[in-house]
Design a protein that fits this description.
By secondary structure, this protein is mainly α. Helices cover 88% and strands 0% of the residues. It starts with a helix and ends with a helix.
Length: 296
């Protein structure tokens, strides 16, 4: 009996220890989950505050409106994408400034005033570099939109002749041309989302025409706004717009070819003219040198 009582006591103690250990683990897990939740809520509140500040700062008439327009033309449509890009770019510029300032402070013998001036120059240069990068991205995106526009116009005209409404037409274009015209379908998806959200179709088309960086896209969106307001034959208008864009592209290609021929002529003058001068004037120069030598 004493042995059974001792075994029973040991079993009870083991069960109590296991229960205490399990309770402690559950408590630690609950505290860790609560800490993560509080931390996530803090980051979310911080992010929402930054987003609300950016929404207020990029309104028309504010100082950051031009920067927001540049980001939008570069392909960053939502405030989330724009704010994330600004955070990454600002962090990169700050890291570059800190590295440059630390290097000049520890490894340079310049006075502190000159170091501060160089840091300010580095800060302004890095910020201007971000703006230049955005403008280059806008130019590349404009070129891609111009290349994809003729395909979008042809498919749009075919779908309109079939009898689709504008919303159905935009939906089909967004779905079917996602691989062949990604930049165009992105703009069309934004347009379709705003129209389906209840915004006025004509006003939405005109606002997008003022934002999109491509001239051809601006003409097409204004045409769609006009057709949406007054009706009429959109098929013929799209066909005329396609011909106009083809003529415009042909003119641009001719200008590029003429500029390239001028550059090639300059290159030929720089590199081939000395060789041609040596070949043609070389024998005469040698003969003149020989004659002067004989006279001496």
């Amino acid at each position: 009996m004493e042995i059974l009582a001792a075994i029973l006591v040991l079993v009870v103690l083991a069960a109590g220890l296991l229960w205490y250990r399990a309770r402690r683990q559950l408590r630690q897990q609950a505290l860790a989950h609560l800490d993560r939740a509080l931390q996530d809520s803090y980051h979310q509140r911080l992010w929402y505050r930054g987003r609300s500040f950016w929404l207020q700062a990029k309104r028309p008439g504010r100082r950051l409106n031009e920067l927001a327009l540049l980001l939008r033309r570069a392909g960053m449509a939502g405030s989330h994408q724009q704010l994330r890009f600004l955070c990454v770019a600002g962090g990169g510029c700050l890291l570059l400034i800190l590295m440059g300032a630390g290097g000049m402070f520890f490894f340079s013998t310049l006075p502190p005033a000159r170091v501060l001036l160089l840091v300010l120059v580095l800060a302004s240069t890095s910020g201007y570099g971000v703006v230049i990068g955005l403008r280059l991205r806008v130019q590349r995106r404009r070129a891609r939109l111009d290349e994809e526009l003729l395909l979008v116009l042809q498919v749009m005209r075919i779908l309109w002749e079939v009898g689709m409404s504008m919303e159905s037409l935009l939906r089909v274009l967004t779905r079917e041309l996602a691989q062949m015209a990604p930049e165009s379908t992105r703009e069309l998806a934004i347009l379709l989302a705003r129209i389906e959200a209840g915004e006025d179709r004509e006003q939405t088309l005109l606002e997008l025409a003022a934002i999109v960086p491509s001239d051809g896209w601006q003409d097409m969106l204004r045409l769609l706004a006009q057709v949406s307001a007054s009706g009429g034959g959109m098929s013929e208008a799209l066909q005329r717009l396609g011909r106009l864009l083809q003529d415009r592209r042909r003119t641009q290609l001719q200008e590029k070819v003429s500029k390239l021929s001028g550059r090639m002529s300059a290159v030929m003058m720089i590199f081939l003219f000395p060789a041609l001068l040596i070949v043609l004037a070389g024998p005469g120069f040698l003969a003149l040198t020989r004659a002067l030598g004989n006279m001496g």
